From TrEMBL:
Coiled-coil ranges (or none): none
Protein name as it appears in the record: OmpR/PhoB-type domain-containing protein
Organism the protein comes from: Octadecabacter ascidiaceicola
Tagged with keyword Membrane: yes
Source species, domain of life: Bacteria
C-alpha cells in the first residue's frame, strides 16, 4: 500500500514537472521569436537618417520648392517612425496574448487529463460511499452528501438491491421483479426487472452516480457497488 502511494506521488510529481517544463518551453520559444522579430524589424529612425543625409548631401538645394520637398520627406520620416513604433507595440501585445492563450491551453489540457484519470479510477473502483440511508416512509435516499427524492417504485427497487447487497447477493432482473411483485422469479420476465433498474437510474438523475452505484454484472444480474456496512434502512 505504501509502495503504491509512493509511486502515485512520484507519478504526480513527474507530471507536474512535465507541465512546468512544457509551459516554460512555450514561454522560451515565444520569447525567442519575439527577440528575433524585433531585431529584424527596420530601425524606426532609418527613414529620418536617410532624409538627414539628403539634406547634407544636397546643401546646394536652396530653392523654395526643394526645401519644401525636403521638409515633406522629413515629416514622412517622422510619420513612418511613429507608425513603426505603434506596430512594435501591437506585435508585443499580440505575443503576450499568444503566450497567455498557449499557457491556458496547456493548463486546461492538463486539467482534462487529470479529470479523465480521476474518472477512470472512479469507473474502476466505483463510487466511494461512506453512508447510504434509505428512508422508505419519506421516499428519500441520502448518499454521502447527496439527497434524492425517489418515486415509490424506485425506492422499492433500491431497497431490494440494498437488502441483496447486505446478503452478498446478485439479483437478476427476474428476481428483482419477483421480490417486488411477490411472485416467483420463474414467472417474471428479465425485462421487467431491467425496466425497474432503468427507472431507478433515471430517478437518481446524475448519470455518473446512477451508473456506478447500480452495477450491472454480465450474465449474473444487478448489485449495489458499495460496501454493505455503510447501508442503513429505516
Amino acid at each position: 500500500m505504501q509502495a503504491n502511494t509512493t509511486s502515485a506521488i512520484e507519478a504526480r510529481q513527474t507530471g507536474n514537472r512535465i507541465v512546468i517544463g512544457g509551459i516554460a518551453a512555450i514561454v522560451v520559444i515565444l520569447l525567442t521569436a519575439a527577440v528575433l522579430l524585433f531585431l529584424n524589424l527596420p530601425d524606426a529612425n532609418a527613414f529620418n537618417a536617410r532624409v538627414e543625409a539628403l539634406f547634407v548631401e544636397n546643401a546646394s538645394l536652396t530653392g523654395q520648392a526643394e526645401i519644401k520637398l525636403l521638409e515633406i520627406l522629413a515629416q514622412s520620416g517622422t510619420a513612418f517612425s511613429e507608425t513603426l513604433d505603434s506596430y512594435r507595440f501591437v506585435i508585443f501585445v499580440l505575443l503576450i496574448f499568444a503566450t497567455a492563450l498557449l499557457v491556458a491551453a496547456v493548463a486546461f489540457l492538463v486539467m482534462l487529463i487529470a479529470m479523465n484519470r480521476r474518472m477512470g479510477q472512479i469507473e474502476r473502483k466505483g463510487i466511494e460511499v461512506n453512508s447510504l440511508l434509505i428512508s422508505r416512509d419519506q421516499n428519500m435516499v441520502y448518499l454521502n452528501n447527496f439527497e434524492f427524492k425517489l418515486t415509490d417504485a424506485a425506492i422499492e427497487t433500491l431497497s431490494v438491491l440494498a437488502e441483496a447487497r447486505m446478503d452478498d447477493e446478485v439479483l437478476s432482473g427476474a428476481e428483482i421483479e419477483g421480490v417486488i411483485s411477490g411472485r416467483p422469479s420463474s414467472d417474471c420476465e428479465e425485462a421487467a426487472g431491467a425496466t425497474r433498474i432503468k427507472r431507478l437510474r433515471d430517478t437518481l438523475g446524475n448519470q455518473m452516480i446512477s451508473e456506478l452505484l447500480v452495477r450491472n454484472i454480465a450474465r449474473r444480474g444487478y448489485m449495489l457497488a458499495i460496501d454493505k456496512d455503510v447501508i442503513r434502512m429505516v
